[in-house]
Target: TIGR03086 family protein
Amino acid sequence: MSENTVANWRALLDGAHEGLRRVVAGIGVDGWDLPTPCEKWSVTQVLQHAAGDQAAFTAAVTGGAWPSEDPFSPSGHIDGDPLAYLARILETSAAAWAEVGDEDEQVPTPLPQGVLPAWLASGACAMDAAVHAWDIAVATGQPSPLSEDAARSLRTVAIAIVEPLRAYGAYAPALDPAPQAGEVETLLGFLGRRADWTAAE
Model:
């Protein structure tokens, strides 16, 4: 863990949440059923999955109620306003993480790894939100919400937690980055995503 990891984890999570809010707000009327880099899932389903994952992290941290819908089997239908739906979940998430201490080494998570240090547990939560925000953005023709700096930090998280999760189907096999790949492309490739994905594929 680098010297400034703990100091930055709250900002990383806040930025991931904001990126997810922004791209969801940018979905057009005809965008909800578009295909995404998450094979067989529409934009609506990716939003449901991302929101469900955030709710699951909150439940693990607080000991509260788990999502009523399986995040890995999203229905493709959201009752009511999707923005309000996401806002409620992210507000609850932010409140839960605000109670976690910077130096806490035993933060419960919904991951197979179980408890993790605060910086890594929150980083896993941030990575999930940030990467699914990217999925929605590229599916709906929006700018990438991932910055090079955020991707660099999230790759540290990914290296620490992703390999065991591939066995559960959470991530596809890693792709080799191009020789001149930046941080965003390298992170996406490690998570089994192509940075140049298009709906035509």
